[in-house]
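Quick question, first post here. What does this chain look like in 3D?
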Amino acid sequence: MMINLKTRPVPDDEPLFGQSKWWGEVDLPEDMPYPEVTVTDEGGDTWDEPLTFICQIRCEDLVDVDPEDVLPHEGMLYFFAALDYFLGDLDAPVYPGMGKWPKECSRVLYTPSCDNLHTHHVVNADGTPACKPPEAIVFSHCRKAGDGLRLLGRPYLEEVRQLMPDMLNLLQIDEDDRWNLTFHDSGMLNFLIRPADLWEHRWENVQCYMFSF
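> Answer (accepted):
Ran it through. Tokens below.
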């Protein structure tokens, strides 16, 4: 079973607070810190760099497309990764590279309740928003593996299936010209998880894998 994701831009006056959304600013519980990766430059200076917020999924939106209850049906699921380089910032301080990414370069978080959420504002050095405009997410059933944005199933690319044979797809991210999102020449990023970890909802064991031709 797989779930297809389609996104659509929304007008400024359409609030997506506490809703499923792609990009934008994340709505986290007050006691859940924004995920960061520690960076050390060539001079030995160290700082914490925010990971790119990718999407939040309000799990009650999955009830009709997840009849096997593979994913939670309440609460919120969040995805973050070091995507700045692949969104066109070639001077980004973090470049995870090809293949399996270091653990600290991605994060999947979950909260069992959508109550008492707080919007985190991540800004650039000049004070402008560091995120792309939010887009609403529409979920639908998907019976065949394919490209695009997907939840669950096996990775679309055969090479990833061969290189990571014991892993399932949690979230598949494809390139998109609208977002200036590319994984080198032609590639995808997969958040991968072992079946036992998926059924037990052990999100801390998710691994990111990037493949590009």
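Helices lie at 158-163, 195-199.
The mean pLDDT is 94.
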